[in-house]
Design goal:
The protein is mainly α. The chain has a two-stranded antiparallel sheet. Helix 8 runs parallel beside helix 11 and helix 8 crosses helix 12. The termini are far apart.
Length: about 210
C-alpha cells in the first residue's frame, strides 16, 4: 500500500466513527443545540469548529478527533463512551467495534466502561480479566470502586497450575514495566476480581 493510500485510509470513517456521527447528531438534538449554537460552545471550549463542520461530522464526512469528541461529551454532560458506543434497543443487539469485530451491546458497554475485556477465551479468562484491570485503570480507581477480595471467604482451593503461571506472569510484567514488585493483595484483587462482600459488582470466586 502506498503512502497516499495509507493517508487516505487514515481519514476514512469506520464503524465506530459512524457511531460517533450518529450519537453526535442525537445528543445535539436532545440537548437542544443548533449546529450554530454547538459551534459557539465548542469555540468557548477551545475547540473551534464551524456549524458546517459539525454537519459534516454528523454525516460521517469529517472525522471527529479525540479532543473534539471529549469536548462534545463535556458540553453534552455525558461520558465520552456515550459518543463511542451506540444507544441500542436491547443488550443483545449486535455492535461493530473498529478493530474488535462484532459483539453484543452489553459486552461492548461493559468494555467501554472498563468493567470487562472486549473478548476473553475460556482457558485464559482469568488472566485476561486481571490484565484488563492491571493495565486499564489506575490503582486508586480500583480501590475506589471496591475491587477487593476476601480470600478466606471466597477462595477455598489451591490455585491451579494455570492460575499460578498467570500470577507469576503478571508479577514479571509488572516488575519489567514499573521496576517495582506487585503487592500480593493487589495481585489477588486483579486475579479474582471484585468481591460481592467487598461491595463490588463483579463476579465472586467461590
Amino acid at each position: 500500500m502506498s503512502d497516499q493510500q495509507y493517508g487516505r485510509r487514515a481519514v476514512e470513517v469506520g464503524p465506530t466513527g459512524m457511531t460517533v456521527a450518529d450519537n453526535l447528531a442525537r445528543l445535539r438534538k436532545v440537548r437542544g443545540y443548533s449546529t450554530r449554537q454547538l459551534a459557539a460552545e465548542m469555540e468557548r471550549k477551545g475547540r473551534p469548529v464551524s456549524p458546517s463542520g459539525i454537519t459534516r461530522m454528523e454525516k460521517g464526512d469529517r472525522v471527529v478527533t479525540a479532543d473534539d469528541l471529549v469536548a462534545f461529551a463535556a458540553i453534552f454532560g455525558v461520558s465520552p463512551v456515550s459518543l463511542l458506543l451506540p444507544l441500542t434497543p436491547t443488550a443483545e443487539t449486535s455492535v461493530e467495534i473498529t478493530g474488535g469485530g462484532t459483539v453484543d451491546a452489553l459486552r461492548a458497554w461493559e468494555w467501554g466502561i472498563g468493567r470487562l475485556p472486549l473478548r476473553t477465551t475460556p482457558e485464559h479468562e482469568r488472566t485476561q480479566l486481571a490484565e484488563h484491570r492491571l493495565y486499564g485503570m489506575p490503582q486508586w480507581l480500583q480501590d475506589h470502586v471496591g475491587y477487593a477480595v476476601k480470600m478466606r471467604s471466597t477462595v477455598k482451593a489451591q490455585p491451579t497450575a494455570e492460575a499460578q503461571a498467570a500470577m507469576q506472569g503478571l508479577k514479571d510484567r509488572y516488575r519489567e514495566q514499573t521496576g517495582k514488585e506487585l503487592d500480593p493483595d493487589d495481585l489477588l484483587r486483579l486475579m479474582f476480581g471484585p468481591s460481592m462482600e467487598g461491595g463490588g459488582d463483579g463476579p465472586r470466586v467461590d
